[in-house]
Specification:
Elements: E1 10-11, E2 15-24, E3 27-34, E4 41-48, H1 55-73, E5 83-89, E6 92-98, E7 103-104, H2 105-114, H3 121-139, E8 144-146, E9 155-157, E10 163-165, E11 172-174, E12 180-182, H4 207-223, H5 230-235, H6 243-246, H7 252-261, H8 273-281, H9 299-304, H10 306-328
Helix pairs in contact: 3-4, 3-8, 4-7, 7-8
Length: 329
């Protein structure tokens, strides 16, 4: 574990460290003042590469960081923090991003659980719509960018209600001929990580890997229960408790979309974010229609529910019986 920087240290004659706000195996994340822009706070993500690597591999890792930081700095989407700078000092690389004020969704979920309640489905689906916009933007970049660490604590809600997908720690760029490059080595957070991502950089991941983590995140936010790990799902396919058993106020449509996203095999999941968003939200746009009714269940949702299917069959039987009686008369 790298030794953290101290408060009041200044990097590049510009970034004055306030405190550590996050920590990982390859470095810390710091809150810092930008001395060139009065009043601007930023987040500095520190990367210290494995010192046991051969010199040539270490050189390649540093060059890789420079290339990928350049790609991230070009991103411009409302639900992503802006990467404004990157640099190296000694053995450490630094990525400078906007500091995002506000609570993350994990904190909001814990607050709700302490009150003995759940986050409202409307709020969660509204945040899901914003997250879908961010992921669709990343996945449509050239080359495609995967986040690979979607989870409640990486989703921050600003005081204005804007959702931000933070921490590019495990971002993966997909380039031609199946070659992949990754900013930091790692596999994501196990609760939200699909099975194919357990191989780290040796496993084949694509947009559907982010969709799995998206679904697992929604599962946790709406149920206050941790999603079953993918390894356990592999060993015990029936171990995933349907969300409505924890929170019966969740709609059939939402439950069905989440379970679909959390399918063990990528081929069984929604194939892109737009498909998952349609399954989850239908035509409801939470940004432009915040007060509109939540999307109703589709026919597939109704048929998948034994209770609803029984009601449909009973209703159909009554209609048929009524028509028969009318015809007889």
């Amino acid at each position: 574990m790298p030794t953290p920087l101290k408060a009041k240290e200044v990097l590049r004659s510009r970034y004055k460290i306030r405190r550590v706000i996050g920590q990982g195996g390859m470095g810390s994340i710091y809150l810092a003042d930008d001395l060139r822009l009065d009043g601007r706070l930023c987040a500095l993500k520190e990367v210290e590469h494995d010192r046991t690597l051969p010199k040539e591999m270490l050189k390649q890792a540093r060059e890789q960081f420079q290339r990928e930081a350049t790609v991230l700095a070009r991103l411009d989407q409302p639900n992503l923090p802006k990467v404004s700078d990157f640099f190296s000092i000694g053995d450490r690389d630094y990525l400078v991003m906007d500091f995002i004020p506000g609570k993350d969704l994990r904190e909001l979920m814990i607050d709700a659980r302490h009150r003995g309640t759940f986050l409202s489905e409307r709020d969660v689906l509204g945040w899901a719509g914003q997250l879908a916009n961010a992921l669709e933007y990343l996945h449509f970049q050239e080359p495609t960018i995967l986040h690979r660490d979607i989870k409640p604590s990486n989703l921050k809600l600003t005081p204005t209600g804007l959702l931000k997908l933070v921490d590019f720690g495990l971002v993966k760029l997909l380039v031609s001929e199946e070659m992949t490059i990754t900013i930091l080595q790692g596999r994501g957070t196990v609760l939200y990580t699909p099975l194919e991502q357990y191989g780290g950089d040796t496993g084949h991941t694509d947009a559907r890997s982010d969709i799995y983590a998206f679904g697992a995140t929604l599962y946790h936010l709406l149920t206050n229960h941790r999603p079953v790990e993918a390894r356990e799902l592999f060993l015990y396919p029936d171990s995933l408790t349907p969300p409505r058993q924890f929170n019966p106020d969740i709609s059939l449509r939402t439950e069905r979309a989440i379970i679909w996203a959390m399918s063990l095999h990528p081929e069984d999941r929604p194939q892109d974010v737009a498909t998952f968003q349609q399954a989850l939200l239908g035509d409801w746009n939470p940004i432009t229609q915040p007060r509109a009714p939540l999307p109703g269940p589709s026919l597939a949702d109704l048929v998948s529910s034994p209770t609803e299917l029984a009601l449909i069959l009973i209703s159909a039987g009554l209609v048929i019986a009524s028509l028969i009686l009318t015809f007889i008369k």
